[in-house]
């Protein structure tokens, strides 16, 4: 080191300046390879997606339209108006005289039957209002809250706050007296939930070494599948009980999990360094190193972080305002172009991703089995996305997945109705599952792709906006599903065209396979210039 200080001027101006230690290198240098306990902590964070999945798809059961049957004289007369209506899959009981029919299960098993939403004059709009309100809350929360994880609160505090408020809103939903309060609380629940998954994914990937990032991301998708698969089992167990029990039994465990995270998980050292909080970053790195069995690590051991924290801290995007990260993205054409392209593609995928599980009732299959099949399709799709991210280009993978999802969705329109025979029902279910499978894989790849497209200083905000684009598709999906119960082209047809066409927007994005993560907007601009030959 002393030689470097006395280097002659003649040679010093010719030598290239030493490149500051990147945060990737810092994590690898100071904590070593990702250990089992460190990986376990990241997996614990990823488990937040299981509770997310339960809230996202809860309405598939709580807002389902129950089956019904004829009563009295009409039940024994096959030629009666009620019996003829019951034999038609598309007929509604609302047009029948009172007293000639009743629900197969107690009215309190669904909000549709308890509050007579369909027969009370509201129609499809009122039936789909709670689900659409949840996704609208997601959209609003994603825009207003997601930047806080990049600026004031950080990843850890944002995650814990989101989980606690989401859980409390879920418990309160169980006490809704009418559909309007119910829809309002679903909006609040969606608003609070909007940043949970994003913060969990970004934090878990920033706590491990670069070789484990894709694996940890896929673990989040696997846990999402686990949460999704738990719903049909829970709903079947509570099939004769009130729909309110579903909210209680999913919200209370989520609240306990949030308390556990608060005490067991540390803040992202990458985010702390970007914010210029070096001492806190060192404490976080020391805690991670202890998980890997690191010994004898003191503050003096982190001298290389001086330049790293100084230079990166100066690159904090856009200052300290709540929307500073969004302003930083909008001020750069390349960043805005990337965000516009990937959010457009994600919207198309989101329509299918959120719409297909809601539309399984239109296939005249058993609701519990159909949802279980959809949930099971998430597991192999997570494995597929992991393989695609490791071996293939991001853009070509996404184009292939969105095209496959669109074609299979359109096939649900062309395949004969289930009334034509059991064969038609099985074919339509298979096409629906294939479309959902491809959209799940595409959604997973899009989220991992977005992590690579944006630097640390704006990553949580960018990934959050990408997720909200998918949620916007979820806002539209319930209305399409309600319309598609009468004419399938309004659901499956629109699903297929949307995901197939909008998926082509990924061709406007740069390829990121094999690239390291950037820390600031300036770093990303340099990396993009190198790739373009500039």
Automatic annotation (TrEMBL):
Q: Residues in domain Major facilitator superfamily (MFS) profile?
A: 38-514
Question: Which Gene Ontology cellular-component terms appear in the entry?
Answer: membrane
Q: How does it sit in the membrane?
A: Multi-pass membrane protein
UniProt entry keywords in alphabetical sequence: Membrane, Phosphate transport, Symport, Transmembrane, Transmembrane helix, Transport
Q: Which InterPro entries match?
A: MFS_dom (IPR020846), MFS_sugar_transport-like (IPR005828), MFS_trans_sf (IPR036259)
> Which Gene Ontology molecular function entries are recorded, alphabetically?
symporter activity
Compartments, as annotated in UniProt: Membrane
Record GO biological process: phosphate ion transport
Protein family membership:
Belongs to the major facilitator superfamily. Phosphate:H(+) symporter (TC 2.A.1.9) family.
Question: Which PANTHER family does the annotation name?
Answer: SOLUTE CARRIER FAMILY 22 MEMBER
In Swiss-Prot or TrEMBL terms, this protein is called H(+)/Pi cotransporter
Q: Where are the transmembrane segments?
A: 158-175, 215-234, 246-265, 335-355, 367-389, 396-416, 436-454, 466-483, 489-509
């Amino acid at each position: 080191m002393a030689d470097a200080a006395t280097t002659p001027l003649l040679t010093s101006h010719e030598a290239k300046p030493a490149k500051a230690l990147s945060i990737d290198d810092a994590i690898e240098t100071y904590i070593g390879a990702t250990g089992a306990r460190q990986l376990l902590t990241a997996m614990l964070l990823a488990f937040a997606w299981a509770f997310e999945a339960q809230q996202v798809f809860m309405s598939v059961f709580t807002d389902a339209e129950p089956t019904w049957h004829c009563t009295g004289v009409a039940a024994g007369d096959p030629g009666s108006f009620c019996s003829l209506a019951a034999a038609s899959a598309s007929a509604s009981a609302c047009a029948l005289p009172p007293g000639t029919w009743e629900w197969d299960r107690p009215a309190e098993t669904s909000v549709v039957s308890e509050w007579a939403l369909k027969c009370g004059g509201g129609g499809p709009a009122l039936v789909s209002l709670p689900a659409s309100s949840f996704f609208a809350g997601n959209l609003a929360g994603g825009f207003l809250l997601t930047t806080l994880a990049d600026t004031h609160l950080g990843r850890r505090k944002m995650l814990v706050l989101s989980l606690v408020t989401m859980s409390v809103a879920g418990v309160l939903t169980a006490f809704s007296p009418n559909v309007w309060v119910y829809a309002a609380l679903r909006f609040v629940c969606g608003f609070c939930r909007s940043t949970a998954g994003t913060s969990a994914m970004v934090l878990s990937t920033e706590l491990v070494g670069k070789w484990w990032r894709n694996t940890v991301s896929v673990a989040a998708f696997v846990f999402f599948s686990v949460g999704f698969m738990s719903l049909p089992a829970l709903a079947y167990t509570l099939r004769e009980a009130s729909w309110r029990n579903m909210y209680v039994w999913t919200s209370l465990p989520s609240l306990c999990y949030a308390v556990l995270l608060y005490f067991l998980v540390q803040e992202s050292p990458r985010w702390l360094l970007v914010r210029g909080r070096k001492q806190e970053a060192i404490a976080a790195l020391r805690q991670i190193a202890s998980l890997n069995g690191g010994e004898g690590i003191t503050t003096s051991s982190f001298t290389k972080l001086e330049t790293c924290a100084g230079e990166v801290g100066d690159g904090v995007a856009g200052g300290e305002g709540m929307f500073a990260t969004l302003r930083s993205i909008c001020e750069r054409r390349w960043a805005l172009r990337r965000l516009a392209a990937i959010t457009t593609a994600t919207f198309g995928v989101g329509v299918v991703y959120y719409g297909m599980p809601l539309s399984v009732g239109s296939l005249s299959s058993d609701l519990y089995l159909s949802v279980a099949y959809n949930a099971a399709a998430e597991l192999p799709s997570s494995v597929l996305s992991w393989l695609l991210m490791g071996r293939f280009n991001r853009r070509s993978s996404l184009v292939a997945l969105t095209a496959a999802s669109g074609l299979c969705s359109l096939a649900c329109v062309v395949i004969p109705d289930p009334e034509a025979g059991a064969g038609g029902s099985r074919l339509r279910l298979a096409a629906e599952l294939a479309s959902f499978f491809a959209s799940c894989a595409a959604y997973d790849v899009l989220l991992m792709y977005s992590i690579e497209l944006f630097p640390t200083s704006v990553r949580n905000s960018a990934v959050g906006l990408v997720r909200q684009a998918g949620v916007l598709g979820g806002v539209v999906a319930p209305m399409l599903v309600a319309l598609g119960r009468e004419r399938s082209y309004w659901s499956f047809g629109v699903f297929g065209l949307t995901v197939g066409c909008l998926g082509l927007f990924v061709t406007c994005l740069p390829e990121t396979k094999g690239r390291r993560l950037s820390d600031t907007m300036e770093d990303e601009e340099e990396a993009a210039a190198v790739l373009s030959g500039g």
